Every structure is written in C-alpha cells, then in structure tokens.
C-alpha cells in the first residue's frame, strides 16, 4: 500500500478518480496504481487495512 497526492487543475472529483489511469514512481519506475477517495477500512474496525 502506498500513499500519494493527486492534482487536477479542474478539480479532484469522484468521476476523475474513478476514471483511473494513475501511476506512481517507485524506485525510478512508473507502476500502475489505483486511487480511491476515503479511508481503507477493515470490518474489524481497524483503519489502514490493505
């Protein structure tokens, strides 16, 4: 799991996030990534669950 910030001059909205096409640079290589709004949540009540 990784965390990143995104920017869009037209605004970061749910439809834009859902459109996908995100990448993160890891050790110099671009890797396909998924973005979502909100917290990662486990049914057991723990946050930040992968």
Class per helix and strand makeup: alpha+beta
Number of strands: 2
Strand fraction band? 15-25%
Major sheet size, sense and barrel closure: 2 strands, antiparallel
Q: Tell me the span between the first and last alpha carbons.
A: 6 Å
Number of discrete domains: 1
Number of helices, where a helix is a run of at least 4 consecutive DSSP H or I residues: 1
Helix proportion of residues, in percent? Answer: 10-25%
Q: What is the average per-residue confidence, as pLDDT, rounded to a whole number?
A: 81
Order of neighbouring strands in the sheet with most strands: 1-2
Topology as a string of helices (H) and strands (E): HEE
Apparent shape: flat
Structure, explained:
By secondary structure, the protein is of the alpha+beta class. The protein has one domain. It has one helix spanning 14-18; strands spanning 22-26, 29-33.
